[in-house]
């Protein structure tokens, strides 16, 4: 049996940190569960219950155990858990991995998503030597589009009816960042 992935702690710049999920992060899951959009695009439970929150944290641990991804909690400079960034390894055999992120509403506007995304993308390219990183962003999500582009991801195109979000299929922009920074 292969060993689980070791989800490291990463310094993410401007005092932000990334670390593995802990069961003490249930308040973060609770706040994310109350968001209008996060539960539609992530596996965050809505409505929140203690049991569903625990199951969410355990799913994050399961990604490392099953070697399918690196889930990180974004921690603000004051030590508060404020979001999530994950590196999924589903297509690693083909030289690519995908990233996803969210920040709870109370912490938005501080640049946390971009700082966390840049840290994980740099680590994935430098230490894990992943040649291609991908991101998927809904066209209406202008803040996330700006975040991806600020970090250096390049828009490749519109994937029509790409993903089920809530009750409908949605268009998604695909972004990529290559190992050489292109």
UniProtKB/TrEMBL annotation:
GO molecular function: protein N-terminal-serine acetyltransferase activity; protein-N-terminal-alanine acetyltransferase activity
PROSITE patterns, alphabetized: GNAT
One GO cellular component term noted in the UniProt record for this chain: cytoplasm
All residue ranges annotated as the N-acetyltransferase domain in the record: 27-179
Protein name per its UniProtKB record: GNAT family N-acetyltransferase
Lineage: Bacteria, Bacillati, Actinomycetota, Actinomycetes, Kitasatosporales
């Amino acid at each position: 049996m292969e060993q689980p992935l070791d989800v490291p702690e990463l310094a993410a710049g401007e005092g932000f940190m990334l670390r593995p999920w802990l069961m003490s992060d249930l308040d973060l899951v609770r706040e994310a569960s109350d968001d209008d959009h996060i539960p539609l695009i992530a596996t965050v439970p809505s409505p929140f219950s203690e049991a569903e929150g625990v199951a969410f944290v355990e799913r994050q641990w399961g990604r490392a155990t099953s070697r399918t991804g690196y889930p990180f909690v974004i921690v603000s400079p004051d030590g508060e858990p404020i979001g999530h960034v994950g590196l999924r390894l589903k297509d690693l055999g083909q030289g690519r991995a995908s990233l996803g992120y969210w920040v709870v509403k109370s912490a938005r506007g501080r640049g946390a998503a971009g700082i966390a995304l840049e840290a994980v993308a740099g680590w994935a390219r430098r230490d894990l030597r992943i040649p291609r990183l991908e991101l998927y962003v809904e066209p209406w999500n202008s803040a996330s589009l700006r975040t991806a582009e600020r970090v250096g991801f390049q828009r490749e195109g519109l994937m029509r009816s790409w993903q089920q979000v809530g009750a409908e299929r949605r268009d998604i922009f695909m972004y990529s960042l290559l190992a050489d920074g292109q």
